[in-house]
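Supplementary Text 2. Reproducibility record for the structural model of the 203-residue chain.

All settings were left at their defaults, and a single model was retained for analysis rather than an ensemble. We include the record here because the model underlies the residue-level annotations in Supplementary Table 4.
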Amino acid sequence: MKSEDIYKTIASPTEEILFKEKNSKFFGYAFPISEEAEIKPILETLRKKFPDAGHFCYAYQIGSTDISYRANDDGEPSNSAGMPIYGQIQSKGLTNIIVVVIRYFGGTKLGVGGLISAYRTTAQMSLEQAEIIEKTIDIHLVITFDYQNINKVMRLIKEKNLTIVSQSMEMACEIEVTTRKGNLPEVQASFENLFGVTLKLKA
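Retained model, structure tokens:
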């Protein structure tokens, strides 16, 4: 049974792969990403590496519960490049990933069917050499309490294996922690019993 608080992604960027079809060259790459802001720099780096390539087609998916995705044909016929790439991301069940396929036209038109096949194959080859890893979906929580309760709070953080992200120990103390999504109800219940301590989801 698949756990509801786990998602699959790739551990690191893949090595460049090359697929050839009727003198057209297709270079494939896959990168782990966590937000859309990372996409533009990746594409800019690849455009510098392949300054005279004709098409930089890609697909990405970000998120585990709220999914955002995009498939870009970059001038190829509609749905002949981006969607076949995205289909490979989906078939592997991956998220937080972008796959880019760069095409050099070789003089012979491949037709829409040929393009779909070539982009799909290049994306598949890129993902086959990726190291696929599982990560947990983590929830951020903020614990607020008076200094006199610090020992109780710290003991619970340790007991529940919470990860401390940041802490501020002034007159009123605040600690930001993360926990696996699946453990949230249990963590919330344990903090409810502590007088003078509030636990809320980070906005």
